[in-house]
Design a protein that fits this description.
Distance between the termini of chain A: 44 Å
Oligomer: heterodimer
CATH topology of the largest domain in chain B: Ubiquitin-like (UB roll)
CATH superfamily of the largest domain in chain B: Beta-grasp domain
Shape of chain B: elongated
Number of strands of chain B: 5
Mean pLDDT of chain A: 95
Number of helices of chain A: 11
Low-confidence stretches of chain A: none
Strand order of the largest sheet of chain B: 2-1-5-3-4
Largest sheet of chain B: 5 strands, mixed
Radius of gyration of chain B: 15 Å
Largest interface: A-B, 30 and 33 residues
Shape of chain A: globular
Number of domains of chain B: 2
Strand order of the largest sheet of chain A: 4-5-10-6-7
CATH architecture of the largest domain in chain A: 2-Layer Sandwich
Radius of gyration of chain A: 19 Å
Strand content of chain B: 15-25%
Amino acid sequence: MRAYVPAYDLRVPRDLTETLALLVAEPGVWRPLAGGTDLMVLFEAGKLEHRRLVNIWGLRELRGITVEESAVTLGALTTYTDVLRHPIVRGEFPLLSSAAAETGGIATQNRGTLGGNIVNASPAADSPPALLAYDADVELISARGARWLPYREFHTGYKQMRMLPDELLSRIRLSRGTSRFQAHYRKVGTRKAQAISKICFAGLRVPSTGEVRIAYGSVAPVPLRCFQTEAAIREGRDPFQALAAELAPIDDMRSTAGYRLRVAQNLLREFLNGSR
Amino acid sequence: MPKQAIALTVNGVEHTLDSWPMARLLDVLREDLRLTGVKEGCGEGECGACSVLLNGTLVNSCLIPVLQANGARITTIEGLAKGDRLHAIQQAFIEHGGAQCGICTPGMVLAAYSLLRVNPDPSEAEIRNALAGNLCRCTGYTRIFESVLRACQGSEA
């Protein structure tokens, strides 16, 4: 059933400080709303649990891409379009720009944010596998302060995250020096454009040294970095067996566990063979 | 929750209206301002029928709470023609069969307009990419892509 619109409140704080004060005053009551590409869908379907929303789309503190010598830091409100328009992000982080280009149509890319893609915590999201492969760090802020943690430790279960009710995801940091990698990103959906993934793959490797990083979407309750499979590749064991043991795909409206495992293995083979 | 005063500049005309903060921009444009060129297709950001330009950026108006658009400039399909003179893209859609039932057409035209402003001479692949968020159930897309190509060749975009 559609949402009863008058029952919902949307607060527009002046700045980040006011936003964090609201979140800490009533933890869990206020749901941050950014580009709306996920929450507004839930809202329209009458499935948005929160009745009180706080608009963070206008917070300048959460915008912008900062390039430093050793890292590129992206504000949580960085949109897919921002990613695609930034020459350094495009040039040095091709997995992320591929994910951005394959997420939704242009109107979605103009509003969807990296921070939203992370905290919406869908295992089918397209940018998390890229961020996992790049060993991203994420910053969480609250009225109590800020903390960084490795993104690989962020998702703990289906829609479960290491984020407290008064915290906001504020920045994403990617280490530079990625030019040694060959990158391979592949999304498999029902059609080429604008489909939610049945499965998606992000891989980085350095053939001369054996360094390899592999991550998948839609194969487990969380976006998954496949450390066991990476170890199998480095140690010359069967990577496809390791992958089958490491993934936990399910049957759902978009695909089946069997199809997902088969395609996951095929995508790994494609990656290791170095071609599409 | 009380209604709030919202200011919108739509197709160059300033409006102030009272609205629920979470009312969808789509509904405000259609119901309050009677701009019914903005269509509702899926209501979940998949089909692009409700596309408008928000401060010059292509968005799905079904996914924008009106309070997020407070103070913004909005362009709907009604704002593209200059009086009786259609925009070159609109004219091309008519001449080359880009429109059939018309539900997707406003979104298609605005997505094409959004592309041509930054890329006046796009390839067909670029047109396909720019229109990938807009679904059409009549034309089979070929005539739509052709209309956009012809609009570039024809006159000013």
